[in-house]
Design goal:
Elements lengths: L2 E4 L4 H12 L4 E4 L11 H6 L7 E4 L2 E4 L1 H11 L12 H35 L5 H22 L12 H4 L2 H9 L5 H4 L2 H11 L2 H9 L5
Helix pairs in contact: 1-3, 1-10, 4-5, 4-7, 5-9
Length: 215
Amino acid sequence: MVVKVYGPTYASPKRVLVCLIEKEIEFETVYVDLFKGENKEPEFLQLQPFGSLPVIQDGDYTLYESRAIIRYFAEKYKDQGTDLLGKTIEERGLVEQWLEVEAHNFHPPLNNLVINVLFAPLMGAPSDQKVIEESDQKLGKVLDIYEQRLSKTKYLAGDFFSLADLSHLPFGHYLVNQTGRGKLVRERKHVSAWWDDISNRPSWKKVLQLYEYPV
């Protein structure tokens, strides 16, 4: 049974797609247009009652929330494709730790920047300059901690590529390429080298080739 992924052009579903490619899992995609409100239609809300992306269907099993999905596939297919969880319980603990850091420290200020710098002008809404300034400061402090960590290990959880690194790709792409804030990465030597490493993986390049960002 082929895995079905909803909303492939948007950032969070790309977190799932790159995981599936790393794990060598066959999938197909279903386009959902957020700008037309297709995520609020009754048929979609039966799959995802909060109206958010992504959603996956693996046979008769439905799952939403991108980080839950990548954990699910990395565990279900742990002996297939790239090992994204680590080989010991200690390595797994660090993968989980940095996944939480990405979700709670890296993502929130960056998401605020994406909304205010990219999407607000597109939607004809005002940008909140105070939020932008605060988010720049918060993200800089987070990346200072990343710089310290990556001066000691090649990847966030150790010397192996994992879900912890992979999870940064969709919104990291916005940060480096589309928000005018690439210097936040480039002025930090180890963060910059780490980003170049993970963003040049064939799996991520394939995602970008197949599914362009909407903005």
